[in-house]
Amino acid sequence: MRPGFFLKEAIRALSRNAAPSLAAMLTVLLTALVLGVFIPVVQATTGTANQVRNRVVVNVYLQDNITPQQQNDLRNKLNTGTPNVKSVQYISKDQALKELQAKRKGTSEAIQLLGSNPLPATYRVVPRDPGKVQDIVNALVNVDPASGKQTYTMAGIDKVANRESDTKKILSATSLVKTLTASMAALLVLASIALIANTIRLSIFARRREVEVMKLVGATNWFIRWPFVIEGVIVGFMGGVLAVLVLWVIKDTLVDPLSDKFALIAAPNTIQFPALIAVLLVSCVAVSAIGSGLTLRRFLRV
Amino acid sequence: MATPPITHLRVHDRPIGERPRKQPQGRNVPVVEFDDVTKVYDGGSVGLERVSMRIGRGDFVFLVGPTGCGKSTCMRLLMKEIDPSEGHISIAGRNIGEIPRGRVPFLRRNIGVVFQDYKLLPNRTVYANVAYALEVIGEPRQSIRRKVPDILRLVGLSTKLHNYPDELSGGEQQRVSIARAFVNHPPLLLCDEPTGNLDPETSIGIMQLIYRINRTGTTVLVATHDREMVDKMRRRVIELSEGRIIRDQVSGLYRPDESTKEFAIRLRGELGIGDEGNPN
């Protein structure tokens, strides 16, 4: 085929139909802008939610008189024989004490008064999926259905605790946040595609007679379609570039100075700016080009 | 001219199943052949009913009848814009029902079309409109630059190359449309009410142009309801009514070798527009 001819046709159509082209470009610009702001926000939110979820742990407190053999068995059981375990950390009695002292000043005197360290040694088990933390507990604890009395499957366990109420709160709050942002993102993407497709549709609809004439003269479908697709690429690219420029200005003047102060903005898992630019540009170009090509299909059936 | 009794309900009768290879004398394979064609639209209205006709190479044929008689249906069937419900249509011996969707544009490149409403591309100049028909078939730029001014000179628009269609009169727009239809010299030219929007004097100019194209050997099929014009032109007339052929008159009244100028003078005389001013 002849790319030069198609490019010329596309540019001519753009300049002769300046108003609809401008409308399509503005639509792309606005939706890209909204997406460009929203994508990092969604990521920061889910990132924070995930961090919170990582605080869900199962603490296995050991009896003070546990034998090394029992402790070894228990560690092997946790590391290999328990489902949903991501990592196991051993916290000795001394470490536990240090942690406590670091958290609450003034406890040292209380401990000194006691004369001995009352804190148990602990295996801190981090679950692979915080939502299924109960699997770990179930592997370690047998509950007698009649009396409700708990027994442990391994010797030497003093207590298994997963801060149940905390866990529940964390899980329900973070999953709500995650579902909300995910559905908002999906809605926004859908709305963007619909909006861009609709604008392109209008601009092509205004030229459907032209398409009809081209068909009657004997133009093949792709001969008619290429200029429209190239037009879509140009419109999408220009809209995307403008949106990126605006985003850049916003990032430089507003977000960067603020990011020192707000944790959410400085969240570690946010997408990098160059990657964001690439994603936005590619999706703008793809949506408007594919939109042009697909919309045209209706008018090509002559 | 007296209308003869209805004699040509079927132009040719032959046993069902026999291939239509009987040639009329002096002609090759007919350029257009309708074989028992029926078209019923989706709504149930009948466009054509059991129409059979043959149009030979180089013929000039009028398709006449009132609005809704099936003239435009014939045209759209020939363009393969629509497909017949029953029967076959052949163009130059090729059954167009067998042409797959993707090849339809190539069929259309061999058929020039002229419409009542010109169907020009509004945001292209006269030159670009005609050039588009050549660009579509992949003609090299050099030959487009040569051919387009030539054809526009032929239709008498060599001074309006760079005007847009809305800056031209109706007659001029129709000339552009004819130039576009004929620029790649298709063997068949279809004209759907080419003079429908034009005044009598301009109509004669257009008819003269179409006649001139016919004289180059192009088969021409003109659908019109301008009875007066048809009678004066003295060419073959196929009359349709409610989707059926009610008259197929191969007029013997005309000299087939009449020159364009003689033709125009006679037409003006018979239509009562009396002056020799030849627009070309």
What would a concise description of this structure say?
Chain A has 302 residues and is of the alpha+beta class. Chain A has 10 helices and 6 strands, in the order ααβαβααβαβββαααα. In chain A, 69% of the residues lie in helices and 10% in strands.
Relevant terms:
heterodimer, A: 302 residues, alpha+beta, four-stranded antiparallel β-sheet, two-stranded antiparallel sheet, elongated, B: 280 residues, alpha/beta, Rossmann fold, six-stranded mixed β-sheet, 10 strands, 21% strand, disordered C terminus
Can you describe this structure?
The complex is a heterodimer of chains A (302) and B (280). Chain A has 2 domains: 180 residues, no CATH class; 105 residues, Alpha-Beta Plaits (2-Layer Sandwich). Chain A is an alpha+beta fold. In chain A, β4 and β5 form a beta hairpin. In chain A, α1 packs across α9 and α7 crosses α10. Helix content of chain A is 69%, strand content 10%. The mean pLDDT of chain A is 82. Chain A starts with a helix and ends with a helix. Chain A is elongated and about 95 Å long. Chain B has a domain of 192 residues: P-loop containing nucleotide triphosphate hydrolases (Rossmann fold, 3-Layer(aba) Sandwich), CATH 3.40.50. In chain B, 31% of the residues lie in helices and 21% in strands. Chain B has a 6-stranded mixed β-sheet, sandwiched between helices. Chain B has a 4-stranded antiparallel β-sheet with strand order 2-1-4-5, covered by helices on one side. In chain B, α6 packs antiparallel against α8 and α7 packs across α8. The longest helix of chain B is centred in the last third of the chain and has 16 residues. Classes of the chains: A alpha+beta (302), B alpha/beta (280). Chains A and B meet through α1 and α8 of A and α2 and α3 of B.
